[in-house]
Amino acid sequence: MSVILSRHRGMPAQDGAGVKLTRIVNQPSLRYQDPFLMLDEFRSDNPNDYIAGFPPHPHRGFVTLTYMLAGRMEHKDSNGNTGVVEAGGAQWMKAARGIIHAEMPKQEDGLMWGFQLWINLPAKRKLEAADWADHPQGKLPVIQFEQAEIRLVAGELSGQKGPIEQAEQKFFMADLRLQPTATLELASQQQETRLAYVYQGEVSINGQLVPRGELVRLNALDDLTFVSSSSESGVIVLAGNPIGEPIAQYGPFVMNTQAEIEQAIRDYQAGKLAS
Questions:
Q1: 234 inside domain
Q2: Any idea which positions bind Fe cation (predicted)?
Q3: Nearest to 163 by CA among 242, 25, 67, 37
Q4: What is the pLDDT of residue 166?
Q5: Among candidate residues 131, 153, 133, 151, the one with its CA nearest the CA of residue 142
Q6: Which in 53, 64, 142, 169 has the greatest CB count within 10 A?
Q7: d(CA 181, CA 148)
Q8: Domain for residue 258, yes or no?
Q9: What is the pLDDT of residues 215-226, one digit of tens each?
Q10: Distance from C-alpha of 222 to C-alpha of 205, rounded to nearest angstrom
Q11: How many domains does the chain fold into?
């Protein structure tokens, strides 16, 4: 069996107050990849593409994880949390029973480049208290190789542990950076859902070439060999075990049933979602 199960290109989208982005997971050719609900890449050096940001908006029922490659984004939420995520850093927000937050650029020009990943929560955790954590670049372990490195956001590798964790729900997220013509080996995480997105350059994965802007679904059990082309390359690798529960989504609310979605809307309208 080929290590690559399918290939998908992201599609242009807008969110927030008109921020231009690429929707990679949760678009017509690639729906939910349980437990991952959505993956967006935002990348532009044109302030008009990102300056309006993501003004205050609600969430319930899942987790957001923002990881930055360049630029600065400020987070503020209804629990009083505030922080700025910068290049190499990550922010984790457990919306759970409800939170209202804003994510706004802390720059007026220059490159803004990063990812937002939505991770589902099991039914028994969807109505827990909301939580938030800021992890600057220095808190993310970097595993160095001769011509490559792995920046570990979540999960365990080579005796290192990424800072982002969720109770009873292990998942893996790593940023692989390869110098030209470098080779990097990555063992299987033994998790059923496994994805790789090439965000820079192009790489061959077990002998199959994957260009920038393409996400591949991978066989869960194979060890991986990444070989970069003649330029520097970057790959986001995700792995996790499916929750296996029904998913009902309406915009920023992700629950298990339509009735729970309707309750989330009523709670938001009544000002009780984040209480």
A1: yes
A2: 57, 59, 101, 103
A3: 67
A4: 85
A5: 151
A6: 64
A7: 10
A8: yes
A9: 999 999 999 999
A10: 11
A11: 1
Q: What is the spatial distance between Cα 164 and Cα 67, in angstroms, rounded to a whole number?
A: 11
In a domain, residue 66? The reply is: yes
- 101 carries a ligand binding annotation: yes
Provide the CATH number for the domain around residue 80: 2.60.120.10
| pTM beyond 0.90 | yes
- Residues 54-61: what's their mean pLDDT? 97
SS3 170: coil
The first and second tokens of residue 72, run together, are: 């600065």
Q: Phi-psi category of 142—alpha, beta or left, where left has phi over 0 and alpha has psi -120 to 50?
A: beta
CA distance 191 to 220: 6
- In the structure, what pLDDT confidence band is assigned to residue 167 with cuts at 50, 70 and 90? confident
Is 202 flagged in the annotation as binding? no
> Is 135 annotated in some ligand binding site?
no
